[in-house]
C-alpha cells in the first residue's frame, strides 16, 4: 500500500527525518510512536505532500508519489487527519462534510466508498446537529468531524496524527471504536500516537521514531507484549 525508502525530509535545508524506511501493507494498521520532537508530524506532512522530500522515495502501490502535489495524493487514496483538525469553524457540520464528499467524488473506483449516511452512522452525535457551526463543537466532536471528513474522501490509507491527544478518556474510547470499525472493514491505517496503550490497541505493528530515525520495528507479537510497551513508554515517551 504505502512505503518509504531512505526518506529524508525537514524544514528549509535542515533535515529532521533521516533515511526512514516504512511499510504499511494492504489492510494493515501500523503505529508510529516516539517522544515529542521525534519527527512524527514531519513524517505525516511529508507523506501527504505538505513538505518536500529531500531524499529517498515514497510509493503508493509501488508507484513513486513524492513529486505529486497533496491533492493528487488524496486522489490516489491517501487521506490525513492532521493535528489541529483544520476544519471550517464558521461553516455548518453539513457544509464541512459536503465539501469533503464533493472532493471524494473524484475517486470513482474507490474500494471504500463511504456514503454520507454510512459515515453518520459511525458518529451518532452528529444526528440533529447538521446545521451547527463546527466551531461550537467540543474538541472530541471536532476530532470526529475531521475523521468523518477524511472518510468521505474514500481513502484506502487513512493517516491519523495524534487522534487522542488532549481528549477525555470517554471520547478516546469512541475514537478507538471508530478506528477498530475501519480496521474490520480492511482499511489501511497509519496511526501516530503518543498514548502507547491506545497505539497498541489500534495497530498490528509499530515503528519507534527517535531523533528522526527509525530505531526499532516491532512485529505483531512483540508490539502486543505488555513488557515491550512498558519498556517503550519508559525509554521514549515518559507515559503509558
Ligand atoms: P510532537 O509530538 O511534539 O508533534 P513530533 O514527533 O511530531 O513531535 P515534529 O513536530 O515532526 O515532531 O518535529 C520534529 C523536529 O522538527 C523538531 O525538532 C521540531 O523542532 C522541528 N520542526 C517542526 N516543525 C518545524 C517547522 N515548521 N520549522 C522548523 N522546524 C520544525
TrEMBL record:
<feature type="domain" description="ABC transporter">
    <location>
        <begin position="2"/>
        <end position="236"/>
    </location>
</feature>
<dbReference type="InterPro" id="IPR027417">
    <property type="entry name" value="P-loop_NTPase"/>
</dbReference>
<keyword id="KW-0547">Nucleotide-binding</keyword>
<protein>
    <submittedName>
        <fullName>ABC transporter ATP-binding protein</fullName>
    </submittedName>
</protein>
<comment type="similarity">
    <text>Belongs to the ABC transporter superfamily.</text>
</comment>
<dbReference type="Pfam" id="PF00005">
    <property type="entry name" value="ABC_tran"/>
</dbReference>
<dbReference type="InterPro" id="IPR017871">
    <property type="entry name" value="ABC_transporter-like_CS"/>
</dbReference>
<keyword id="KW-0029">Amino-acid transport</keyword>
<keyword id="KW-0067">ATP-binding</keyword>
<dbReference type="GO" id="GO:0005524">
    <property type="term" value="F:ATP binding"/>
</dbReference>
<dbReference type="InterPro" id="IPR003439">
    <property type="entry name" value="ABC_transporter-like_ATP-bd"/>
</dbReference>
<dbReference type="InterPro" id="IPR052156">
    <property type="entry name" value="BCAA_Transport_ATP-bd_LivF"/>
</dbReference>
<keyword id="KW-0813">Transport</keyword>
<dbReference type="InterPro" id="IPR003593">
    <property type="entry name" value="AAA+_ATPase"/>
</dbReference>
